[in-house]
């Protein structure tokens, strides 16, 4: 059994490339113990949000072990591995992870994990569960990497369709996109939306796709072009650094163009990097999971339970919600597998089969995710896709829209 190590968040950041362990002790009545490998980035481009996301998913594992796991006679152990959000690092670590843990599932972080392990996991028969939206380059049948949300291009297309409806009129909505060739995921975010615009010229016009560094210093010139092209929205689904540089560039040009962010680089993270949420007044985040706003929702109530009873030390924001939703989605699939196969001898292959056997209901994820129905045809649900939209009003995050339909986005 793996020994428990649970350093504070400052310790996590200081640990850098050192693998971090956060393992629950086995309950006396537990008969079976299974391991989860957690891929993390405490020292790379997502170091600013990783402690919060990690705290969310680990609190869920504690909750599950103490409740459902206890009743089923199963304990889930877990261990973090520092990947620096780098595909080469993930590929290098994987043989050791598999040998050390023999996990029944991997809890992934982002595009580098998908790029590094998409060919390995089918051979090893270990599924990986993500928190993020999916990627076009992973959109294939018989997958072993699964996302509870559709692709980033699906999510941005849903937001832009909603924005066009709010604006009114028949003219296509003009949009600019921020991307970076430093990550295959960032390139993918742009390619899918470009194809959607090409196939739906009456709905959307892409005025420019701007490729920049992962941590750009100044985008003033690029934002001047965006403003002059008449863009009505700027899509930045990459990271907080690019949001900050884009926002500063827009401000330098006096351009009032709303930015749409995703969950991992959303309003609280980007607002904090900019010096306060007030800097993002009128900007948006949109994704296929609950918006962490002030309203009293089932998701917020469950978050409060994790804080009060399971040592969650993280604010109520979209990054925490992403970690919690990932944890809930993962343990629900594992619980389905246990209910189908029994507690003894559970394998990664059984966990994957359970994903297709029955839906993951929104009640099982406490409202963090819609009801999800997976098929072997894609690594994410293909039907009933929806996004929620959050914004900043008077310096506070509020829910702007829920259950926004996602238009038909074709595979690219």
Description:
This protein is an alpha/beta fold. The protein is built from 14 helices and 13 strands. The protein is globular and about 65 Å long. Helix 4 packs across helix 5. Residues 1-30 have low confidence and may be disordered. A seven-stranded mixed beta sheet has the order 8-7-9-10-11-12-13, with helices on both faces. The protein has two domains: 9-150 and 295-381, Response regulator (Rossmann fold, 3-Layer(aba) Sandwich); 152-287 and 387-405, Rossmann fold (3-Layer(aba) Sandwich), CATH 3.40.50.2300.
Helix content: 25-40%
Taking the sheet with the most strands, its summary is: 7 strands, mixed
In CATH, the topology of the largest domain is named Rossmann fold
Approximately what portion of the residues adopt beta-strand conformation? Answer: 15-25%
Second rung of CATH, namely the architecture of the largest domain: 3-Layer(aba) Sandwich
- Summed up, the helix count is 14
How do the strands line up in the largest sheet?
8-7-9-10-11-12-13
- Helix-strand pattern: HEEHHEHEHHEEHEHEHEHEHEHHHEE
What overall geometry do the principal axes of the alpha carbons give? Answer: globular
Assembly type of the shown chains?
single chain
The CATH class of the largest domain: Alpha Beta
Q: In terms of structural class, how would the helical and strand content be classed?
A: alpha/beta
- Stretches where pLDDT is under 50 for at least 5 consecutive residues are 1-30
Tally of separate domains: 2
Number of DSSP strands?
Answer: 13
Family: Belongs to the leucine-binding protein family.
Keywords: Amino-acid transport, Signal, Transport
Protein name: ABC transporter substrate-binding protein
Organism: Litorivita pollutaquae
